[in-house]
Amino acid sequence: MNNPFNPSFGRIPAVFLHRGQLIDDVVNEINNPNSPYKISIVYGMRGVGKTTFLTEVGKRVEKNPDWIVVDLAMGSNLMAALVDSMYMKAGNELQKIFESIKGLNFSAFGLQLSAEISQPTFSTYQGILTNMFDKLRKKGIKVLITLDEVKSNRELKDFAGYYQLLNRKDYPVALMMTGLPENISELQNEDVMTFLLRGKRIALSALNLAQIEVSYNNVFKQSGFQVTEDILSKMALMTMGYSYAFQLLGYLVWNSAKKNKIIDQNLLDKIKPEYLVELDQNAYTKIFSSLSKQDKKFALAMAQSSEQRVSIKEIRERLNRPSNFVANYRRRLLDDQIIKSTNYGEVAFTLPFFKEYVLQQHRFEQGL
Ligand SMILES: Nc1ncnc2c1ncn2[C@@H]1O[C@H](COP(=O)(O)OP(=O)(O)O)[C@@H](O)[C@H]1O
Ligand SMILES: [Mg+2]
How is 124-178 classified by DSSP, letter by letter? Predict the structure, then answer.
């Protein structure tokens, strides 16, 4: 049997863990025309499972024939991509209706404009789209637009302006975005985009450790691996509920144990260095480099503690800074989900072995 774990980004994995009722609730909300979830933002760090979540919601919404789900990606002309994808996702009957719109020609490659409008501008697309949405509304068809990894740029700004218009005119068009916390907060700086921020926020928290343990147990035991409960709970702890880590650890353990079919402490010790390297290369380096200099100092002061759960008092003493300064950085790192509050006046890192990563990074910098 092939390795069922898949530590690559942006794909619905074969071993998928449900976050309780979250997807069901969100799908129900999207179906309700007056729901505040008409615009929603899934946010969280790299690797928590935003793209996977978005894809899963899209798949679920699409099961209802009254809905068309259109997946847009940043980095293309969003308006043009919306026209094309709506056409592609429409059924035969609807495609015919779209084709009846004057001046438009669709082919297997998407939209072709007639000669008079060969230099399409923003308002060309706006006109076409509104025409298309009118036809959809008459047919009772609703649209969910998904937009992965939003960033504040011109393209999003134009799109947001148009979406706001659609929304004001009550077209049944829902929008679900994902974004890194730092990119989401940048949207605040642009007037048009603050409209998007009024959407419902969906924070993706860590996966449940008990669920991880059960899942590892099922997958490995069903495939004839020998593993004790003790080792299974160690594995769950090694992931700390981080989605990417869950796939990565499962993947490495599977590959390393597939010959002997025995998963024990020895095996975990053996794969740990590779586990850490992959976490660093594929997630932590990007996550850490997005932090400000002061954020990094706070993280280092935390990592230098002998405890996993570090008191704010200890961090303040090590940084030798006033408490409002420290409180400010604590808040920033909490918002970015780098740290979590474990108790009153106490914080811990969210990601597995992030403490070790920060210390190692510091050693490298000292060596330079
Ligand atoms: N609910 C889940 N259960 C199991 N694995 C998941 C889940 N969500 C995401 N993953 C895995 O975590 C990794 C990161 O997911 P992805 O959606 O790409 O994260 P993000 O978009 O937040 O960076 C992928 O390997 C994916 O398969
Ligand atoms: Mg993603």
Answer: HHHHHHHHHHHHHHHHT-EEEEEEES---SHHHHHHHHHHHHHHHTT--EEEEEE
75-79, 242-246, 349-353: least confident range: 75-79
CATH of domain 22-203: 3.40.50.300
Alpha helices in the chain (DSSP H): 22-31, 50-62, 78-89, 92-99, 122-139, 154-168, 181-186, 191-197, 209-222, 229-239, 243-257, 265-279, 285-289, 293-303, 312-319, 323-335, 354-367
**Residue 87 Cα to ligand 2 middle (Å):** 25
Model pLDDT, residue 91:
87
Query: How many angstroms separate the alpha carbon of residue 13 from the centre of ligand 1?
Result: 7
- Ligand 1 centre distance from Cα of residue 236 (Å): 16
The domain limits of the chain are 22-203, 226-288, 291-367
Question: Which ligand 1 atom sits nearest the alpha carbon of residue 148?
Answer: 21
Averaged confidence pLDDT in the chain:
93
- Separation between Cα atoms, residue 74 and residue 89, nearest integer Å: 19
* Token pair belonging to 241: 């509920």
Please tell me the residue having the least CA distance from ligand 1 atom 14.
47
Atom number in ligand 1 closest to CA 55: 17
- Whether the per-residue pLDDT at 115 is higher than 60: the answer is no
How confident is residue 114, by pLDDT bands cut at 50, 70 and 90?
low
Residue 346 · residue 311 · CB < 8 Å: yes
Distance from residue 256's CA to the centre of ligand 2 (Å):
27
CB distance 179 to 151 below 8 Å = yes
| Residues near ligand 2 ion, CB 5 Å cutoff | 51
CB-defined site of ligand 1, < 6 Å: 6-11, 13, 16-17, 44, 46-52, 243-244, 246-247
Give the model confidence (pLDDT) of 279-336 as tens digits.
999 999 999 999 999 999 999 999 999 999 999 999 999 999 999 999 999 999 998 8
Query: Alpha-carbon dihedral of residues 125, 128, 131, 137, nearest 10 degrees?
Result: -60
Section 29-47 average pLDDT: 92
Instruction: Tell which atom from ligand 1 comes closest to the C-alpha of 45.
Output: 22
May I ask the CATH class of domain 291-367?
mainly alpha
